[in-house]
Amino acid sequence: MKIKPDATAHVQPHLASAEQQAALGFPTELIPNWQEEAVRLLGEKVTESRALKVAMDACMKCGACTDKCHYFLGTQDPYNMPVARQDLMRSVYRRHYTFSGKYLPWLVGAKDLDDAMLDRWYTYFHQCSQCRRCSVYCPVGIDTSEVSMAGRDILASIGMGQKYANQVIGKVHTKGNNLGLPQPALADTLEGLEEDVLEDTGVPVRFPLDEVGADVLLVTPSADFFAEPHVDGLIGYAKVMHQAGISWTLSSHASEAANFGLFVGSAQQTKNVALRIREAALELGVRRLVFGECGHAWRVAQNHLSDLVGLEFLDAAYPRPQHIAEVTHELWQTGVITFDKSANASRVVTFHDSCNVARASKLGNTPGGQFTVPRDLLKASCEHYVEMAKPTTHQSTFCCGGGGGLLTDELMELRIKGASPRMNALTQVIESHQVTHMVAMCAICKSQFSAVFPEYGLEFDSVLSLHQVVGDALLMTPSA
Amino acid sequence: MSTLLAFAISVSIAVLCLGTFYRLWRLTRSPITRHIAITPTPTTRFGIFIALLIETVVFRTLWRASFWTWIFSWLFHLCLLLTILIHARFLSIPAPKISAWLMPYTTFVSWGLVIGLLGLLARRLLVDRVRFVSSPSDFLHLLLILTIAGLGMMLSASHSVNVYEMTLFVQGLFNGAWQPLASNFVLLMHVLGACVLLCLYPFSKLFHGPLMWFNPTRSRPEPPRS
Q1: Under 8 Å CB-to-CB from B146, ≥6 apart: which residues?
Q2: CB A237 within 8 A of CB A441
Q3: DSSP character at residue A457
Q4: pLDDT band per the 50, 70, 90 thresholds, residue B32
Q5: Where are the beta strands (DSSP E) in A220-343?
Q6: What is the pLDDT of residues A257-302, one digit of tens each?
């Protein structure tokens, strides 16, 4: 793959407005001493994070990562090579914090943080979906997402926040979810879903909201309340809960699993967003936490939630947050629920591993459960399951192209190009095995594919929620 | 010349040891703020140790990522290790067993080293993606090691170094009783080059091996899930 310099130099997300910056406690415009402050923050961040320290020091420029990023493969812009993206930060770090960079900058590629570099930081730290595919192929395991997260936090701290992410974090705090759905709208939607499911199945499946005393708090991405294919996944969760006889509820205060604090690289924002979940759980008196289909929410839930907000209130039998897929998987394995594959007879499905589930978390208790749990469920509920090419699945899965806070319209050119490695793999199985649907278990993946499928000649609704497929095949006991 | 060499070797070995110790000490002080393992990772510390050991010995990740980079860099690192072991012959008379056993293959090993380095250099020059991210220092590291290797091969081919005298010289460095050495310009350049390399090691990207062992994406087991 050859490089095309500046191929996507023009693709930038909108800057956050003064209000959006102020809402999160960031400066409302580029501060006068931004250069000095950015360099100071960079030094502080590297001192405070071993991952970042290793990223600044360990890269031997071997080039192993250069053809692994979906954005590079889709755009050929050299700054989308993970090593070059890291170099934007590394060169400034070297200039200010290493002997050779201070006195022999030309020798070691050290550079000043000037206007042009600042522009590159904003552009290319926002052309990284933080999916960490490059880290899988880095001989020393450098994590580019740590670099782009730190870069974004520095940018926001000197007055250059990103509109989409800041807006979303603002809405989470004022409305309880990323989409800004107020409680009455939520209640109305859930009531409508109860009627729809009753009509379709004849079974009175409930969608409880804010029910004090429920056992399980289900925290799910707000897209699940809003649009297809997400909402069909929510129906699937509700059917599983109903059939298993689990007492559960949603919360209007924590009606959002997503945590954009992670994307903007701010530990404080991540914590603030996560706190709502603790508050809702305590308010409703639940003893279990279950997360819906959202990739990075699961990463935060599994790896950070306990440290961030404390989960001492959880039942001793379920001391950690659980993922809806592992709950369903266990119910299926223990025979509590069963599937009728014929319900999905007309579908030939394949599975897209979502980056944050595949590379940052696990499911179930067996190593690699993040790969086997969803596949087991699909194979149990579908007659026709097809795997995409190996270098594009499991740990090596390609990002959907819209993750990490880039799921915004002004980045559409990047999103379409970044989806191309996944689309190539999908097109192959469509041609070879007549695949009709690709299943995903992440709200961002699903939204992104719905948006970019038409660009590749596919129907927007060819992407399905895992729990839609599972729910369709679930055998429901008719109520007495 | 012997004084200069003795001085350079002593200083560079001190820089290497103290520098490495300092870097490792700083790394242990550098906090791991969040769990960021690239999953799936082993679930025990022993499992992590084995995984990192395999990575260190056979460069498994690089094998998966880029075959040509893997073949050249693995060849280079392996031959570098063998070269160091062969140089242990200057520690004692008779030579240590491992050196004595490897000595007949010296020419092969040297060529392996050089071919590995030339391969990496070629990749850096010819693949536009890698050229784009290369700084002068990236080329100079390769050229420095190539120069040292080339001079070493000249010495080895010309038999211009008296092994007995050289061994006494090296032993003298350790006993503090410095021994004289016959003047030899190629030897001087070879050893001074190696001294520069030793000094660079702890303070440059050449330190990537130890850094890998400290990287939180690789060095931490997954938290238990039951």
Answers
A1: B114, B117, B118, B121
A2: no
A3: T
A4: very high
A5: 248-249, 288-291, 322-323
A6: 999 999 999 999 999 999 999 999 999 999 999 999 999 999 999 9
Task: Report yes or no: A470 and A445 within 8 Å, Cβ to Cβ.
Answer: no
Nearest CA in chain A to B39: A359
- Report the C-alpha gap between B25 and A166 in whole angstroms: 38
Q: Are A320 and B223 in contact (CB under 8 A)?
A: no
Judge contact between A444 and A400, C-beta under 8 A: yes
Residues in chain B closer than 8 A to A2 (CB atoms): 128-129
For A247, which DSSP code?
-
Report the alpha-carbon distance of residue B41 to residue A303 in Å, rounded: 14
- Chain A residues in contact with B201 (beta carbon < 8 A): none
Which chain B positions have a beta carbon within 8 Å of A59's beta carbon?
205, 208
Mutate to test the interface with A, among B215, B218, B222 (most CBs of A within 10 A): B215
As a whole number of angstroms, the distance between CA B62 and CA A65 comes to 9
ipTM: 0.95
pLDDT of A85 > 80? The answer is yes
Q: What is the mean pLDDT of chain B?
A: 94
In this prediction, residue A179 carries a pLDDT of 87
Q: Which residues pair with A323 in a beta bridge?
A: A291
SS3 state of residue A350: strand
Of 1.10.1060, 1.10.3470, 2.40.128, 2.60.60, the CATH number of A18-161 is 1.10.1060
- The angle formed by the CA atoms of residues A455, A461 and A465, to the nearest 5 degrees, is 120
**What is the phi-psi region of residue A26: left when phi exceeds 0, alpha when psi lies from -120 to 50, beta otherwise?**
beta
Mean pLDDT along residues A449-455: 97
Residue that has been written with the tokens 């209640």 in this structure: A187
Q: What gap in Å lies between CA A133 and CA B64, rounded to an integer?
A: 13
Tens digit of each residue's pLDDT (9 = 90 or more) over B163-176: 999 999 999 998 88
H-type alpha helices, chain B: 2-29, 45-58, 60-65, 67-87, 97-102, 106-126, 128-132, 136-158, 163-175, 185-200, 208-214
Neighbours of A246 (CB within 10 A): 17
Residue type, A45: K
> What's the pLDDT at B2?
84
Query: Does residue A379 have a pLDDT over 70?
Result: yes
Q: Residue A71: which H helix or E strand, with range?
A: helix A70-75
Inter-chain CB pairs, A–B, below 8 Å? 178
Q: How sure is the predictor about B33, in pLDDT bands with cuts at 50, 70 and 90?
A: confident
Q: Where are the domains of chain A?
A: 18-161, 170-473
Question: Domain limits of chain B?
Answer: 2-214
CA angle A323, A143, B139 (to 5 degrees): 160
In whole angstroms, give the CA distance from residue A327 to residue A317: 13
List all residues of chain B from 143 to 202 with a beta carbon under 8 Å from chain A: none
| CATH fourth-level superfamily of B2-214 | Transmembrane di-heme cytochromes, Chain C (1.20.950.20)
pLDDT digits 0-9 by tens, A149-174:
999 999 999 999 999 999 999 999 88
Q: What pLDDT is stored for residue B182 in this prediction?
A: 87
